[in-house]
Write a structure and sequence with these properties.
six-stranded mixed β-sheet, 17 strands
Length: about 350
């Protein structure tokens, strides 16, 4: 089998790694260097967590994604993730917390709704209000994204994958040599909406209890934000949860003063002990949004196009890699793969 992969983000590289493991002849093309620091995948870490509110399909898909990462780690030679646990906060009126807990319990995942005092005991510097609910689960991990991408590139090279850097492929190009072509559609592609997302790193106050700190998902506000603890010598990270749906991926990636101010304001509203002059080191990444936020697999087993739904794409990289290779090999039906990756199969 000869495979052409266009796009060397997390999905393209995972497809390539699984394909070369099968003994296929694999060529990967990217318009930038590989891994590309401007890709949606590139950062110190990305989160994998179960709470998805009323979207049972994606909650179930996360369990499958965890299993796929367990099969990926031996191919990379190390385990590039750190368990943090998950603390999620939302307004009671949305039903997000209750729906998340019910879905997780059906899958046998440890989770509970905790009260304000229990939340303070876990994370004393997080403010919780009376009209809010709090979900706590010991599950949830920080995937060490940069290290995963570097390991994918290294092991792909070691196993003979041909990596073509700074090689822009026009849309619709056909690779005459390829039995199968996989297009990983990023923020530059047609059919997706580029979305500029603010991310900033900071040093936590000395008063914070930082040992075994969970990820914090603040879903109560109009924008919301998430907090990723510093793990494996990475920085502490703040990110805006709501998709902006604006910008162009060729824009300057450093954050504007307004973007930094907005992140700081969001954080200080929820987190105690952050000074008004806290130093944030910011950057922007671009998500590739599609209709209804669901992953889309288009085309046929011979020419597949994958479009990531939103910022929760990275966690499904290993699963996408396996699934695409199974379709190309005739082991999985194309329609079944479409439903699975769109979160339409409740396991």
């Amino acid at each position: 089998m000869k495979l052409a992969v266009v796009g060397a983000g997390i999905h393209g590289l995972c497809v390539a790694r699984h394909a070369v493991q099968r003994g296929w002849d694999v060529h990967v093309y990217d318009q930038g260097c590989i891994p590309n620091p401007l890709s949606s995948s590139f950062d110190e870490h990305r989160l994998i967590r179960y709470p998805y509110g009323h979207d049972d399909g994606y909650t179930a898909l996360v369990a499958t994604a965890y299993e796929a990462w367990e099969r990926m780690w031996p191919l990379l030679g190390d385990r590039y993730h750190i368990e943090t646990g998950t603390l999620a906060i939302s307004r009671r009126t949305t039903g997000f917390i209750e729906a998340s807990v019910k879905a997780m319990q059906r899958l046998g995942i440890a989770v509970d709704i905790i009260d304000t005092e229990q939340a303070k005991a876990l994370v004393p510097h997080v403010r919780v209000h009376d009209d809010e609910e709090v979900l706590w689960s010991p599950t949830g991990d920080a995937l060490l994204a940069h290290r995963i991408l570097v390991a994918l590139v290294r092991t792909c090279r070691e196993h003979g994958v041909h990596l073509h850097e700074r090689h822009k492929v026009r849309e619709g190009h056909e690779f005459a040599y390829a039995d199968c072509t996989f297009w990983a559609r990023g923020a530059w592609a047609s059919g997706v909406l580029p979305s500029r997302q603010s991310i900033a790193y900071f040093r936590p106050p000395a008063t914070w209890k930082t040992c075994r700190h969970p990820m914090v998902l603040d879903l109560a506000g109009d924008d919301g934000f998430y907090l990723v603890p510093g793990v494996a010598k990475s920085g502490w990270k703040l990110g805006v949860h709501r998709s902006s749906g604006a910008g162009h991926p060729d824009d300057i990636r450093s954050l504007t003063s307004d973007e930094l101010k907005r992140l700081g304001t969001l954080a200080r509203t929820r987190l105690q002990g952050l000074s008004s002059d806290m130093r944030l080191t910011g950057l922007a990444c671009y998500y590739a949004l599609v209709d209804k936020g669901r992953f889309q697999l288009h085309g046929s087993p011979r020419i597949m196009e994958f479009r990531g739904g939103s910022g929760h794409s990275f966690k499904f990289g290993a699963l996408v890699g396996e699934t695409v290779c199974q379709v190309a090999a005739g082991e999985t039906d194309f329609g079944d793969a479409q439903k699975l990756l769109a979160g339409q199969v409740v396991i």
